[in-house]
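Quarterly update, task 2.4: fe (ii) ion-bound model.
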Amino acid sequence: MISSENAQALRRAVDSFYEKNRDLDLSYFSERTPEEIGELAALELDESATAELQREAKKFTSGECCIFHCAGSFDTSELAHQTPQSFLPVPSNATTIKARITALLLMRLASAVPVAYRSENDGGLFVNLSAIPGSGRLAEKSIKSMRGHTDGVSFPFPYNPSDGTYSQMISPSPDIVCLICLRNPDLVPTKVSEVDASMRRLDGQTIQELLKQKYIIGCQNTFRSGTKKILGDYHIAENAEVFRLNTGVYEVRFSHSKVVAEEHDTQGKAALNAFEQATNDTMADLTLNPGDVVLINNRRMLHGRGRVSEGYGGETRWLLRSYAMFYENFYSDFLYVDSSYELIP
Ligand SMILES: O=C(O)CCC(=O)C(=O)O
Ligand SMILES: [Fe+2]
């Protein structure tokens, strides 16, 4: 967690950048790429804040911490717009613009590139997370509690040069999930569980099982229609591993409902159940307040949330979500040629 002095320094930097760039376009990024916006906003930080924030960010980038929580890093006192009832569009007003610039700045400090997937919400770099009315799958999901999961779960782990070349043009799932809290009146908890803590509860055989390339990983709901449109069918990963060991560090992809073992694979099923139990046992509340931005390591930590209260629009719960890739895992080959941040598919 950053100090309140540094949170104030972030606000000053973003205010100053905002005043100089009043006509900034945060929907199509026609003039400046999201990465450039983060870079330029970071230049507005005063020197002492830069040094301290960089130290904090580095702990996250190096993997020493799985979460970079910047409480109170932007101001929400002027937010008048009602909570949207769909992922897009993100309403454009001073509060949401500054909130997004703050997130881009923090990604920059964390040595990460902002990204989106064209197959999810039409490639929107920031999307609203709020209650969606109606009866479809996405509407129902929008208020349910969520058990621990990683985002983009059916997409591969980052390309590892020692594995040879990548065989298909499916970008890796995001390294980082960024949540920005605009409203959370009922203090619905965001929940997090560190993979290392869960693993300490697993025996060696279970870990070996989860390293095997034999699971089937279904498509995250928000990617369903987009992957169907772009790839011809819902994306699904077969012969997939849940854990991978990458230079001495265990990385994970997991979602309770999406990752399954083959019908007769009792050992695989038992291993998934054991991991599920371990994640439930290690889940902790991380309640976000308006003005908080949090970067979550999407390979070393699972995230979820408590149930969202009844009601839509008005002043109900409203987060923004974005993704990022650490520089070392970002390959521009995976970008659409006409975009500076949209990954294939
Ligand atoms: O609403 C939240 O707090 C998180 C939602 C989430 O994790 C997701 O939509 O994948
Ligand atoms: Fe998620």
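Highlight for this quarter: The domain at 4-308+316-343 is CATH 3.60.130.10 (Double-stranded beta-helix).
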